[in-house]
Design brief:
Blueprint lengths: L1 H19 L4 H8 L8 H21 L20 H17 L3 H9 L3 H20 L5
């Protein structure tokens, strides 16, 4: 059951990225590049995602078990530290340069776009390097 629900959630997410145009790096860069005509559509997509997230998290907080039967595991950490700051900065830099973030990268890989494949490979190398550089037990 968990695999089916995960598949459906991923499919809906990927279709949402395609329908909204957010899997198109040029569209994302049109939002991030303020020196050219600004495309506010990403802000609308973000606002919609935040609204859905707020509802989803508020519903999840009231549950003891997930819909598929496993435990509900919500983030509890509320501190800002250098790992979060530098991780967010590196994510933002990559997003701004390529116009791609991890979700759309997977959509682009599935669609066979070389830019998505290269981004996904760079992302995997970055995650591997982060794992090597992180102190043990951190």
């Amino acid at each position: 059951m968990r695999i089916i629900v995960s598949f459906i959630a991923g499919l809906v997410f990927g279709l949402g990225l395609l329908v909204s145009g957010m899997a198109n790096p040029a569209k994302v860069l049109g939002f991030l590049d303020l020196a050219h005509p600004w495309d506010p559509s990403l802000a609308l997509v973000m606002a919609g995602a935040i609204a859905v997230g707020v509802v989803g998290f508020s519903m999840a907080k009231r549950r003891k078990t997930a819909i598929c039967g496993g435990p509900v595991s919500l983030p509890t950490r509320r501190t800002l530290d250098k790992d979060l700051f530098f991780g967010a900065a590196i994510f933002g830099l990559g997003w701004g340069l390529a116009g791609i973030c991890p979700g759309p990268a997977l959509v682009l890989v599935g669609a066979g776009y070389i830019k998505g494949v290269l981004f996904a490979l760079a992302m995997l190398v970055g995650m591997w390097l982060a794992g090597i550089m992180r102190p043990a037990g951190h």
